[in-house]
Amino acid sequence: MEHVTQKQRDEVVAHFKYKGILIDERPYGSGHINDTFLLTFEIAEMGQLKVILQRMNKEVFSNPVELMENIVGVTSYLRERIIENGGDPERETLNVIPTVDDKPYYLDSYGDYWRSYKFITDATSYDKVENPQHFYQSAVAFGNFQRLLADYPADTLHETIVGFHDTKARFATFKKVVEEDVMGRAASVKKEIQFVLDREDIADYFSDLQAKGEIPLRVTHNDTKLNNIMIDNKTGKGICVIDLDTVMPGLAMNDFGDSIRFGASTAAEDEQNLDKVSCSMDLFDLYAKGFIKGCAGKLTKKEINLMPMGAKTMTFECGMRFLTDYLQGDVYFKIHRDGHNLDRCRAQFKLVEDMEKKWYTMQDIVKKYSNS
After folding, report:
1. What pTM did the predictor assign?
2. Which of 45, 107, 171, 296 makes the best surface tag, with the fewest CB within 10 Å?
């Protein structure tokens, strides 16, 4: 995508329902996908108002119109539930600012799609787990997201990235990529390839249960990292789930599992020293406690019991995706060094092995909270 020019931004700003005089605009946040700006408006006697303006990445999200339909549907519904519960809808969900012709997005003269949200004041999102309490709060907030959307008809949402967590389909793709071996790299990673092939049962597990109707389709976030929760600066509570681009039909266990993969690991996602990589049972315990509390009885007993499987599946899937990308020549994930995707893959597989060793502990932790 081309760099955003001032001229382009001026055109876009003129087409949203903003009030007051624009006094400041600057790039914002640490996201890798969309271009995000923070705008500050001066409104006569009322002081200043901040808004987020975002150019959507059309390479990643090929249908921005459907994506915004999802976001408007889910945030409008959340707004109603939050008001019913006596909460503050201005801070506890994203609020989409419409364009001058009342659309949730603006298509500019360059062919780019833009959207705007009210900025959530006095709250912070954290890129990594510096404080275990933040991790717990993110668990409660993502669980609460499940609770509030439990009755939303998941099948009415568009799939913004088709087959995003279809582990079975990703396994089939992986086998095909190994066979084609376009970069001639397969021979050097036989051990990693075998690791995946030995675990086909993980890839099939959830889709087989779904096919039998044993686990429900739910509205899921699909990117449940800590930095997608706004934490209130005063109370320290997780108040709002953000970055709803990947909200679509999915499985609650996968939302839980992705958080564990990312947040309960004792090392970075691309750690080269595998001795440092393990799944912290303290953090797993903390997150399971918060997530189950946040869901407040809205998940089935089976879904709760399958949470460890969600953690293993998401970590396995992610490692498999890194390995697939390595074999294809690093075309999807950005790399910062040779073999970067291979390092990422090995760290994920080490985490899977560690979970396998701690399997009964993980199951006991989840049972402890499901019965409380």
Report:
1. 0.93
2. 45
